[in-house]
Amino acid sequence: MSGFLILVLYWRSFTSPFVYDDLEQIVNNPNLSTWASFVQRFLLHPVELTTSLLGYAGSTYRPLFWFSLFIDRALWGLDAGGYHATNIALHLANSNLVFALLRRLKMPVLPAAAVCLLWLSLPINTEVVAWISGRSYALCTLFVLVCFLSALNSIRDGGWTWRLACFFAAVCAGLSHELGILIIPLLLLLLLLVEEQRSKNLFITLATVALAAFAVEAVRFSVKVKSFSGLASFKWAGLAFSKYLALTLFPLRMSVERSTFFSPGQSHPWSLAAVVCFVIAFGYAVLRRRNHPTLLGGLTWFLICIAPFVVLTNYQGLAERFAYLASIGIVVAIIAVCSIPNQPLLRNFLAGIIVLWAVWNLYRTITRVADWADPVQLFAHSLQATPQSPSLHYNLAYSQKVKGDLHAALDEYQRTIQLDSNYPHAYASLGDVYLQLGSFNDAQTAYKQALAQAPDDIPTLLNSGTVDQSVGSTSEAEANYQRALQLDPSSSAAHVNLGVLYMRENRSNDAAHQFTIAIDQKTKDPIPYFNLAVLYQQSGRPDQALALYKRVLELKPNDEDTLANIKLLEQSH
């Protein structure tokens, strides 16, 4: 049943493209190409994580997450469908493990199946499943659940097989995502729910999990991970907590970027009401813990899992993916509510409400998965939830530019700059659009603003030089190209652009020198070969020109200009 349901919900993911952080983490990530570069980048060093919006700097160490991407890259290349299939398989496995864990905790089959299917279809989980870069949360959850099942078997049966399985699962959880550290308090919660008696197996199992957590932290320390720090204010924590409740229970609007969800300086009565309702529900669960321990267990699970993302302000703001593991507890608590009333009518009424909620979840999940299948739709709909987000306007503009809707992209880049005037990439991208539209003066102005904020950005220097050259500012163009070469002497693009500039100034020898350097960089760009061939042809060196033209055809088969020049050479002979 769960396999059929996940295909109904996520079938569009199989044809969805790489989007958002996928472009940097997968498509444009050379460190996933070879084993040596993967080991050097992701096993021996942490990954830096910074943002100008939240003002923190830190790093993460998630080698198993990166290893899963490395394996997918080896299997599928840059076919996004294979990566999405892995994410969907992980989510399906996690839902089945949730069912197995609940049955191990003696929950009846029907409620356990209901939890499994409801959690599988939660809209808030679409970010983890439909977004390839959200995989670390699904991977961590997989190992957390395997660890718990192994730990319960170890306590019951003893034996080193289960203990080793428990140890390695806990290690793998921590190496998938730092959220794996919650494995200790969550395991203690499960042991309280099953009311395990003190025994030798119990203490050995707890020691095994603690040792695994210590081993992970030792590895993180050895690679010099920069931990996140900073406690949230009471008000911010309350706002964040209420938002996670709303996103889990009834996400009307969803966003991939949540830094502008709310302003702590404003009044949020709805947030206070949500927190008060949760406190009342939690208090009731504490009072009825002996008769209905599952309700208290589910709410406590949610609190434990969401606490790091609510209490630590310097983590990453708000994110739907942060609630992936926590949302299991909310669904367990919802199903537990149905078993509380003694009156059949009230119980059936509550069950009917849950059925309606489940149907709405199906609809909302399907629509959100459709968003992830189309980057323009994804960012446009996300802006409905967080309209003041500069990064969303920027990404929407980029997606529109890729689709060829340049005027719409122009508007979004300008909106980005209105919201955040210190956004050099937005200015540079605005210049790119103006360049494509042929508005060279506007492009020149945009590039100058970008370089004023990021003077060492090589792509912007190159594009700015191209525009300067187009409007006749050859000295400024040459200065930009030379600056790019100072930053990266091996930049074949800078050598090519400088060579083109020299060609137009009739500085043939200087141009030939630049094209030769670019060719020596073993570039696959046919332009330096073609331009150098033209120079040789004009200077009366047909044999050298012909050899270069043949190389151009290897890089760009059936190029009309090259074939025409070859024909002229043959006719002259």
In words, what does this structure look like?
With 573 residues, the protein is an all-alpha fold. The chain is 71% helix and 2% strand. The chain has helices at residues 2-10, 22-27, 35-43, 63-76, 80-104, 109-120, 126-130, 135-157, 160-176, 183-194, 200-222, 234-249, 269-287, 293-311, 327-337, 344-372, 375-385, 390-403, 406-419, 424-437, 440-453, 458-470, 474-487, 492-504, 508-520, 526-538, 542-555, 560-572, and strands at 47-51, 56-60. The chain has a two-stranded antiparallel sheet with strand order 1-2. The model is unreliable at 51-56 (pLDDT under 50).
What percent of residues adopt helix (DSSP H or I)? Answer: over 70%
Main sheet characteristics: 2 strands, antiparallel
Shape, per Cα inertia axes: elongated
Strand content: under 5%
- Say how many strands there are: 2
Termini separation (Å)?
75 Å
Number of helices: 28
Given as residue ranges, the uncertain stretches (5+ residues, pLDDT < 50) are 51-56
How are the SSEs placed, and which strands pair?
Layout lengths: L1 H9 L11 H6 L7 H9 L3 E5 L4 E5 L2 H14 L3 H25 L4 H12 L5 H5 L4 H23 L2 H17 L6 H12 L5 H23 L11 H16 L19 H19 L5 H19 L15 H11 L6 H29 L2 H11 L4 H14 L2 H14 L4 H14 L2 H14 L4 H13 L3 H14 L4 H13 L3 H13 L5 H13 L3 H14 L4 H13 L1
Antiparallel strand pairs: 1-2
Helix pairs in contact: 1-5, 3-4, 4-5, 5-6, 5-8, 6-15, 8-9, 8-10, 8-11, 9-11, 10-14, 12-13, 12-14, 14-15, 16-17, 17-18, 18-19, 19-20, 20-21, 20-22, 21-22, 22-23, 22-24, 23-24, 24-25, 25-26, 26-27, 27-28
